[in-house]
Amino acid sequence: MLKRILTAIILLVVVYVLLFQLTPHAFQWVSAVMLLWAAWEWSLFLQAQFKWRLGLVALVALGVVGAYFSPIFLPLGLACLFWLWALVGTVFWAGRESSHAAGLSHPVAIGAFAVVALPAFWIGVNVLRMANIGPLLLLFVFALVWMVDIGGYFVGSRFGKHLLAPRVSPGKTWEGFFGGILLSLLLAVGVMLWLGASSHELLSLLPQVLVTALFAVLGDLFESLLKRQAKLKDVGNILPGHGGFLDRIDSSLAAIPVFTLLSLLSS
After folding, report:
1. CA 97 to CA 99: how far, in whole Å?
2. Where are the beta strands (DSSP E) in 213-257?
3. What's the pLDDT tens digit per position in 210-240?
4. Which residues, at least 6 apart from 99, have a Cβ–Cβ distance to it below 8 Å?
5. For residues 107 and 235, is the Cβ–Cβ distance under 8 A?
6. Is residue 15 pLDDT above 90, yes or no?
7. Which of 171, 174, 181, 250 is most buried, with most CB under 10 Å away?
8. What is the tens place of the pLDDT at every residue in 115-164?
9. What is the DSSP letter of 243?
10. Nearest to 11 by CA among 263, 259, 247
11. Rounded to an integer, what distance in angstroms lies between the CA atom of residue 134 and that of residue 114?
12. Cβ-based neighbour number of residue 256 at 10 Å
């Protein structure tokens, strides 16, 4: 537990430096390097030889370049479609059907998912980072995701009785699911009231927060599904007590692109 707490403190310091000390250009490069590390961890899901794992990282790098030079809506919209595909696969798996029914057990599908989802996440965080209050906005979105995780854990631990998806993630419950969603919404309400937002602005934001929180749960469940298929507990040990880098951003991988897309559509 002490190791986990110390790692969490270090991570908070790293997040602060990334968001508030780096220039937008430097943030792009650092976040790209971190993304490629996440791609390397994702390649474990392929259960393939080193050359194929390295090939996936190269394809993700090309995906980042392609996403950078494409219209913003393209990578974000495509990623959201892929996450809906992940929802179908997760439901099939949770319902005691083979995830192969949704095509998500095949290495090509798993690799294609990474090539779409990871660059879209990179685009999302950088679009938010370059907004007028970019660092604070990005911190707000990450905090929404963290509230989903924190609420899910504590409410689930205290009141959880009904399992959400036992074949995918045995520790998650419906009580924790609703607790995490509620805590995320409460954070959004608190921040908006503190900023003096009108009731119209608040009501306009809450549906976006709700969808973002739901996608955060999906991102977490989908990574759990992939780990179960590959018979992995964690995808790495770079973060003592927390597993791999991908284990820390799994929820955000789905949440950030959808939040960014909805923000662009509403602006």
Report:
1. 6
2. none
3. 999 999 999 999 998 898 888 888 776 666 6
4. 89, 90, 92, 93, 105, 225, 229
5. no
6. no
7. 250
8. 999 999 999 999 999 988 889 999 999 999 999 999 998 998 889 889 98
9. B
10. 247
11. 26
12. 29
Rounded distance, CA 102 to CA 195, Å? 43
Angle between helices 107-129 and 50-69 (to 10 degrees): 40
Which tokens in the block code for residue 151? 């609420």
Give yes or no for residue 22 having a pLDDT over 80.
Answer: yes
- CA–CA distances in Å: residue 181 to residues 14, 156, 200, 254: 26, 12, 21, 15
| Contacts of 37 by beta carbon, 8 Å cutoff, 6+ apart | 238, 245
Residue written as token pair 């419906």: 174
DSSP state of 70: S
- Number of residues assigned to the chain: 267
Q: Confidence band (pLDDT; 50, 70, 90) for 180?
A: very high
Dmax (CA) of the chain: 55
Cβ atoms of 231 and 266 within 8 Å: the answer is no
